Amino acid sequence: MPLRLLVLFVLAIAPASFAVEPTPGILAVASYQGADRTERLIGAAKKEGELMLYSSLTQDDQLKLVADFKRRYGVTVKFWRGSQAHILQRVLSETRGGRFEFDVLETNAPQIEVLAREKLLQKMNSPFTEQELLPEVMPAHGEWAPDRLNLLVYAYNTHLVKPADVPKSWQDLLDPKWKRRIGMESTNVEWFAALVESMGEKPGLDLFRRLGDNGVAVRTGHNHSAVLVAAGEIPLMLGIYSHDAERMKAKAAPVNWFVLPPAVVLPSAVAVSRRAPHPGAAALFYDYMLTDGQRFYTEVHRVPANKNYDTAVRRLVRDRQALKVVNAQEAIDDYDKWLELYKRIIVDRSQH
Description:
- By secondary structure, the chain is an alpha/beta fold.
- It contains 15 helices and eleven strands.
């Protein structure tokens, strides 16, 4: 079910039907403070022995992540993988049925924010949120925290695009030489909205209309889109994740990437259920995702949200480059508007 329909589904139901009170167990671990916090969480987690994670990370990354966590703490992580929309749908369906099966969520921030608004997530008071690279991304309610930053980049096949031809501006993309040679990802609504708003709505929409007039190949799946660039099917793909492009480069694929200002960042976040069946393990995993889990992200070419790592986003911030971070709250409120515009201007006119 698309995010738009899920949000409408949520809004159609009385808020009281979803709001839940936190269990004593989750309130206890959420309030842990002091030098012995981690030690106490490890002790509680080991007694519980396991936790349930719902995440949109790729299957391969999840397997590596849970193996790393178990190696460190001896606690098993069971996980269910789905897209951000499927995670949202599953949590809402379970909650409506009075079932509280997940301990921790990890997916894109706008979908996490939908669940925070329904009073399903617990503020964890973790001291590690102070290490956020982009503290302005933290929601005021504190019921989720960014753990990775999805940098949307523009990838090209190095056999098909010469270095001198790499676009230097958005206007360069309107050159006739790019006609029917550009692709976009079908679900990048937040990316589209961020760019149009930064350009000014009228000129921004005009630019995308002109791109659409030139013929855009629309594909679904960020990793799939990167594969198509490497295969030479699409010479230039706008709006894939930097980690997918970097993985291709690491395999010596003919792929490179660049950004045009403003660089767009879509945060993903980690959050804990108010009814977590394994509160100690959930709290420990939450802290892990903001600390050692950040190091893990660098090993799989992802961009950690922690400011202590040298990443493409950190370099953009350091060099004061134009950066547009997707605001989770605004993305939900305005999603319907931007989805309809993106579909009409780009997706529905896709060149196959």
